[in-house]
Amino acid sequence: MADLKLAVTGAAGRMGQTLVRLIHETRGATLAGALEHDKSEALGKDSGILAGIGENKIAITCDAEAAIAACDGLIDFSVPEATCRMAAVSAEQGRIHVIGTTGCSVEQDAQIAECAKTAVIVKSGNMSLGVNLLSVLVERAAASLAADDFDIEVLEMHHNRKVDAPSGTALLLGDAAARGREVDLSTNSVRVRDGITGAREAGSIGFATLRGGTVIGEHSVIFAGAGERIELSHVAQDRSLFASGALKAALWANGRTPGLYSMRDVLGL
Predict the structure, then answer these.
(1) Are the C-beta atoms of residues 99 and 83 closer than 8 Å to each other?
(2) What one-character DSSP code corresponds to residue 200?
(3) How many CA atoms lie less than 13 Å away from 146 in the CB half-sphere?
(4) β-pairing, 205-211 with 60-61?
(5) Residue from 24, 37, 45, 162 carrying the catalytic annotation
(6) Is-catalytic flag, 219?
(7) Model confidence pLDDT, tens digit, residues 71-92
């Protein structure tokens, strides 16, 4: 079977370079395109040299249409606006699109879901096995611990350059808790507390966001009851685990029917 030809967005960044290296090392996959935004200083440079694996003759480009046309699938850790544009191209060309981009609005998520009618799209707030397993445990715990007895708080910390809050992973975990409680997260979450807020509303799901330093990602879901507290946590120590999960998702998606999938589908959770 021929190698799966993949393009990578943000190929000059930390995650992009990690993906370029990982694809180079993975049997069954090959790099076919490397994308950056149109003002990047890396345009025209060899993506292999930037990633530290030596020349691979895949120059970094901003031409998404051409790059996607030359590949079987795209691994995309970028920004919501760019992700929506590239999802439309993936849909037009019937390509695989693995999306690790976070911070999408409800409208942008709807656009991506529409694109999934003609493209195989795997989208997740976090691509790691550990976090997705954690989400399953959170859902089960939320279903077992009554809202009148246990409050749920999601705590997350990331590096000081992260631009969206709460993180995509925190929202993924909050959504898992909401599913367990059989409620809608959008109408049962508390994102900000400031001033005289009054007593905590029973059944709400709270979020707390920390930013600083070079923290890759730390998440805890706290179930706080009377006289006891249960904490389920995940600590990311190397961002390569996200790249590895995204590549696993791309290989899994090959040959699938068009649709919108999650990492739970990929991992059989």
Answers:
(1) yes
(2) P
(3) 3
(4) unpaired
(5) 162
(6) no
(7) 999 999 999 999 999 999 999 9
- Distance (Å, whole) CA 253 – CA 246: 10
Q: In this predicted model, what pLDDT tens digit does every residue of 189-225 receive, in sequence order?
A: 999 999 999 999 999 999 999 999 999 999 999 999 9
Structure tokens at 210: 């920390």
Order the strands of the 228-236 sheet from edge to edge: 189-190, 205-211, 151-158, 217-225, 228-236
Residue 158 a catalytic site member? yes
- Please pick, among 123, 158, 234, 248, the residue that the annotation labels catalytic: 158
Q: Which tens digit of pLDDT belongs to each residue from 121-174?
A: 999 999 999 999 999 999 999 999 999 999 999 999 999 999 999 999 999 999
pTM: 0.86
Taking phi over 0 as left and psi of -120 to 50 as alpha, with beta for the rest, 201 belongs to beta
Question: CA of 238: how far to CAs of 12, 16, 184, 185, 249, in Å?
Answer: 18, 14, 32, 29, 18
Percent pLDDT > 90 in the chain is 97
